[in-house]
Amino acid sequence: MRGRDVMRRTVAGQWRSAAGSAVLGAGHQTGEVLVPVVIGVVIDEAIRTGDGSALVRWTIVLALVFTGLSLSYRFCFRLAERASERAAHALRMELTRRTLDPRGGAEAGRLPGELASVASGDTKRVGAVHVALAAGATALAGMLAGGVALLAVSVPLGLLVLLGIPPVLGLAHLLGKPLERHSGAEQERAAHASGVAADLIAGLRVLKGLGAERAAVERYRRTSRDSLAATVRAARAQAWHDGVMLMVTGAFIAVVALVGGRLAVSGDITVGQLVAAVGLAQFLLTPLSILAWANGEFAQGRASAARVAAVLGAPPAVAGGEGGPPRPVRGGIRLVDVAHGDALRKLNLEAAPGEMLGVVTTDPAAATALLRLLGRSADPDSGTVELDGTPLSALDPAEVRRTVLVADHDADLFEGTLLENVAAPAAGRPVEPAMAAASADEVAADLPHGAGTVLTERGRSLSGGQRQRVALARALAAAAPVLVLHDPTTAVDAVTEARIAAGLRAVRAGRTTIVVATGPALLAAADRVVLVEGGAVTAEGVHARLVHEYPAYRAAVL
Amino acid sequence: MATTHERELLPTASAARTGAAVRALARPHRRTLAAGFLTLVAATAAGLLTAPVLGRVIDLVAGGAPASAITAPAGWLAVIAVVQGVATAYGLGLVARAGEGMLATLRERFVDRALRLPLERVERAGSGDLTSRVTNDVTVITTVVREAVPALGRSLLTIALTLVALAVLDWRFLLVALLAVPVQAHTVRWYVRRAVPLYAAQRVAIGAQQQELLGSVGGASTVRAFRLEDEHAERVGRRSLAAVELALKGVRLVTRFYSRLNLAEFVGLAAVLAAGFLLVRNGSVSIGTASAAALYFHNLFGPINVALGLVDDAQSALAGLARLIGVADTAPVPSERPAEPARDGTIRVEGVGYSYRPGHPVLHDIDLHIAEKERVALVGASGAGKTTLARLIAGIHAPDTGTLTVGGAEPRPDDAAGSGRRVALVTQEVHVFTGPLADDLRLARPEATDEELREALERVGALRWARALPQGLDTVVGESGHRLTAAQAQQLALARLVLADPPVVVLDEATAEAGSAGARELESAADAAAEGRTALIVAHRLTQAATADRIITLDAGRVVESGPHRELVEAGGRYAELWRAWSDGRRDDL
After folding, report:
1. pLDDT score at A80
2. Whole-number Å distance between alpha carbons of A279 and B44
3. What's the rounded Cα separation, in Å, for the pair A1 and A120?
4. I need a surface site. Which of B256, B337, B343, B493 has the fewest CB within 10 A?
5. Is the CATH code 3.40.50.300 the one for domain A333-557?
6. What percent of chain A has pLDDT above 90?
């Protein structure tokens, strides 16, 4: 999928609104054109002649023009904005569903914040193309209406204005361009000051911890002064850009007045028509600048559409496999000659149904790879990962995860209360045992509203240890036939870790649990521990024996 | 850590105080401001001459003048354009210089005060309060000063001077033009009453949508693992639709606002035309004057829409300004006494108790002596008071009862002498400051040479990866630069500690976030950083505790054990139990 396809679908999806707003926009511009024309007519027909009934008549016409332009403006923009917002919403949902697809792949090579910003910012900019479309159509209609009106007043004057405006704006653009470019670069440097301030505040505790406040303030002052100098230069460039625009357009109006005045003197046009022509010449500068703006919006929309398309079109991380595991699920896991990347080579591993197996890896990458394979977030390069004798690659990833729950070390918590987070995968089962086993009940007791406390910023309001315990409680509450835990207690103190190890064993009794960790308390609670070195198993046994007999194991866990 | 107390937001300045602060900020720039304002008045006035000159052309035409007579007024129009352009550019430049200068002073004062606020105070308010002030409020004010204020200023000047010019043409033109004012005033009141709550709701909805996206899309792998895909897609949909609804409500409001302004335009324009009709008929003014009046009024549409459209920008900027000035006005923490030089690294804690909330003590009657260069590990369950004790020693809180001295003096948050202090605290909360890696390190010691930076990195085992960065120590790291891993960020924190070189260090779970894989590496980095100093280490991993000179076990806010590893293991108390669970025991052996 390419950006162009996203753009086309976006516009096509809301074409009724888009077309409606373009028509109404044309109506609005026509109205705007008619205002100076009617002013001219009033001067000619009423003020010059002293005809009172003409004044009344043309005032009513003016009222009608205003009503028309006002209503068409109102509904033009409502339609355009509605199309824009709806298109953005539709894209946002498509993007969300693609990202959450069980087969994955959308997040490959992207930071989490980046995906979220594509889903919020880029979808919005793609949707905003509808507003640019409406504005562009409006501007074109305005130019057309203005041109027709001017030509109706006087062909030579009309031609002068219509042919004169593009070079005038071109000239202003040319004169302003270097200034504007200058300004853009300076603005960027200027924005730096706000960024640095936010960054220092974000690191407030670190600064306080070191006593580096004074150094930070000094540094900020320098940044701020640099920024100030850049901003002032940028503002000056921008000011001259505005000034040049005023000069060029003003000179153009002078030429129109000169030519129009001469035409009026020679009787080719009336006084009122001269007034209308000057008004139109001023008016026509606006649609052209709107067109330039719309063009810029389109360019942004195209860039955003390309980013959206890249996510939507990302290949799935795991392809193939539609089936479900054999029922009833017993929960046996077996890895046969598994190789994956550099991390795993010829790994053979088995967890019997109901067993609690500890896995210690000397290489963190091996742990990550193992976890991805067990949850079928990836398929092995060679060898098989089996659930009750069926290769995972033959199973639908969603079905795999119904049986095998992989709880990552850095699992995210979600917006909502602590209890909602824990209960989300519990399907109505009581969560108290899980909460107690993970010592998450203690976390709840420390919070202002207990388990009903809302976790803001995705749980970042909790400390690392608190977050880990809530995440562990959630994993336990899911009561999956096979649970794979990765470093569930690294940020938890030794006392609590020992309690969690015992609780974990009790709550998971009778179900398969694989703990990929190096915490001795957890490993001591496992039925059996395997040591993975160089991508393959090099030792296995109970924790106590491994500690005594294998220096490599001891070095890894103590 | 106790997070149960009520939020107490940082102060917000009153309207009067905000006004006074703005005037004070403007004082050093008053000459520039006055010059800029006068230049803009001149520019606007010049621009307004266009209409009467056009009126003159019309009168010449109506009076049957020769074609050559048109040349002079057309020339004047060109001169006006040049004067207006130059004066506008010059005036805007001056106003921007003053405005940006004021803005810079304000943000510097804000950052200065914000960084000196006692940490306790910031935490009471929630760190989000300060962050939102420095990000949202500063951004809003900056945009308004840069874009809205010049536009608003020019529009208001144009409006004011146009009204003057109308009066100069004939005072009766001004009178009828003012018929539009009641409609406009009513419209603005109507709009502001609805817009303020609506935009506030909009900001909340967009924030909620953003958070939901960060959680659901950013946390996609967790969502998939728990098979919550449908639920989360639905949650995103709900948030997104709510934001869309409010955005469209806002659009409806804005379009109705401008429709009502259209009515004012019509009323005013019809009145000016009717007045022109009557005045021309009774011979008070010429057709040219009547035309000029009509053109004047027609040209007011743009500036009026701009000015009224900026009403809510101006309002939100004022609200933000009050919040910034509220912080900038807080008195800097007074230095009660000159900072005493660090004498030694002994820590004495005698009978210390502390509670975050009255009646809920976290620490009771703690007695503790730590000798110079002794390394002490603090062990205990969550909630035992380890972090609180660490923070008391670091001077973040003052004890409720008892005495606590470091190097013979009370540790205070403001005792920073020069760029360092007696006690440095490193927690599991890491932050990488955006900018070159060397700049980040130099926060701890601004005058450090490159060689010293490299030595500090080497000491905590970070030199290898630091050298391997694309531009070495000059590599831009942090939010917008090269992302460091959690373990690297923590090593960086320890390297800063080495550079700050305090006699006493407090490490609160400084190795916790790395996951088990990086923990060992960080532990040796922490050991290296603490070498040669008095160190209090809050340890999660008992292996880190085991290497300390002494271990202190805290339980429910009291010291229950104290002694070297071997001694405590042999004593068979709490610590011994823990150690057995760690080192080789089976759970059921305990």
Report:
1. 92
2. 19
3. 20
4. B337
5. yes
6. 32
Helix (H, G, I), strand (E, B), or coil: what is residue A416?
A: strand
**What Å distances lie between residue A316 and A92, A102, A370, B242, B517, CA to CA?**
19, 9, 19, 31, 29
What is the architecture of the domain spanning B347-589? 3-Layer(aba) Sandwich (3.40)
Nearest in space to B274 (alpha carbons), one of A70, A39, A270: A39
For A491, list phi and psi in degrees, rounded to 5. -100, 15
Q: Which residues of A touch B267 (CB under 8 A)?
A: none
Mean pLDDT confidence for A458-464: 72
Q: How many CA atoms lie within 13 A of A439 on its CB side?
A: 22
Alpha-carbon gap, residue A319 to A297, rounded angstroms: 38
User: Given an 8 Å threshold on Cβ–Cβ distance, is B237 in contact with A219?
Assistant: no
A420 touching B (Cβ < 8 Å) = no
CB B382 within 8 A of CB A442: yes
Q: Tokens 């593009």 correspond to what residue?
A: A166
Across residues B388-404, what is the average pLDDT? Answer: 87
Residue type, A366: A
- The whole-angstrom separation of Cα B431 and Cα A204 is 9
Contact between chains at A495 and B381 (C-beta distance less than 8 A): yes
Fold that domain B1-170+312-331 belongs to in CATH? ABC transporter transmembrane region fold (1.20.1560)
Using CB atoms, pick whichever of B247, B290, B540 lies closest to residue A47. B290
The kind and range of the H/E element at A558 are none
Domain at A3-154+269-312, CATH homologous superfamily: ABC transporter type 1, transmembrane domain (1.20.1560.10)
CA–CA separation, A202 and A190 (whole Å) = 20
Q: In chain A, which segments carry CATH 1.20.1560.10?
A: 3-154+269-312
**Residues 6 or more apart in contact with residue B43 via CB below 8 angstroms:** B83, B84, B87, B88, B91
Residue located via tokens 């942004």:
A300
For residue A328, say if its preceding peptide bond is cis, omega within 30 degrees of 0. yes
Banded pLDDT at A201 (limits 50, 70, 90) = confident
d(CA B103, CA B137): 12
Q: What is the pLDDT of residues B558-585, one digit of tens each?
A: 999 999 999 998 998 888 887 877 765 4
Lowest mean pLDDT: which of A135-139, A498-502, B509-513? B509-513
Contact A358, A517 (CB under 8 A): yes
Contact B582 A405 (CB under 8 A): no
From CA B587, how far away is CA B581, in angstroms rounded? 7
Residues in chain B: 590
- Its ipTM equals 0.82
SS3 at position B562: strand
CA distance B397 to chain A (A): 13
On whether the CB atoms of residues B569 and B579 are closer than 8 A, the answer is yes
Nearest to B419 by CA among B496, B534, B527, B495: B496
Mean pLDDT, chain A, rounded, equals 86
So what's the pLDDT on residue B5?
39
Set of chain A residues whose Cβ sits within 8 Å of the Cβ of B513: 464, 490-491
Q: How many CB atoms lie within 10 A of CB A112?
A: 18
- Amino acid at the residue A220: Y
Name the one residue in this structure whose structure tokens are 């940490």. B119
Q: Is B225 within 8 Å of A231 when comparing Cβ atoms? A: no
- As to burial, measured by CB atoms within 10 angstroms (0-12 exposed, 13-18 middle, 19+ buried), residue B429 is buried
pLDDT at A186: 66
Strand A333-340 vs strand A382-387: parallel, antiparallel, or unpaired?
Answer: antiparallel
Torsion of CA B23, B27, B28, B29, to 10 degrees: 80
CATH 3.40.50.300-classified regions of chain A? 333-557
Contact state of B220 with A115 under an 8 Å Cβ cutoff: yes
Instruction: Considering chain B, tell me which residue range(s) the CATH 3.40.50.300 domain(s) occupy.
Output: 347-589
CB B548 within 8 A of CB B375: yes
Q: How many CB atoms lie within 10 A of CB A442?
A: 17
